[in-house]
Amino acid sequence: MKNIYILFCLVFVILNSIIGLIFSFYPLFNWLTANFVIIINAVLLNQLVKSNINDAFKVSLSFIFPVMGVITFILSLFMPEKIEDNLMFASMLIIFTFQLVLYIIVYLLKNNKS
Fold first, then answer.
1. What's this model's pTM, rounded to 2 decimal places?
2. What is the pLDDT of residues 33-90, one digit of tens each?
3. Which of 112, 114, 104 is nearest to 47 (CA)?
4. Is the pLDDT of residue 114 over 70?
5. SS3 sequence, 11-67?
6. Sign of the CA dihedral running 4, 10, 11, 16
7. I need a labelling partner for 13 at 20 to 30 A (CA). Which of 23, 26, 61, 72 fits?
8. CB 75 within 8 A of CB 33
9. Domain boundaries, the chain
10. CB 12 within 8 A of CB 39
């Protein structure tokens, strides 16, 4: 049951890749970025499930991380193909950083309580 995030990740990456191959209006950059977003969020959720942090933190982060993942996925679908001056890409990086900082803070709080 703990590997369910990896299974969903695999299914969504395959589905996104098939859609990227079928539709010509889905640019390669957006397709690969969307796959990257799916994989990163699945890894974060998998690490969260396997960690020994407090259950209250697990529950709250297991709601926050997927919401942020959906937001970054939507940004990856509609962002311009160039990295330069790309506000959507910068927003995605900020959201990823926020997720990592949240996870690190919760992990450090767990270690301070022991």
1. 0.87
2. 999 999 999 988 888 888 888 888 888 998 999 999 999 999 999 999 888 899 999 9
3. 104
4. no
5. HHHHHHHHHHHHCCCCCHHHHHHHHHHHHHHHHHHHHHHHCCCCHHHHHHHHHHHHH
6. positive
7. 61
8. no
9. 4-113
10. no
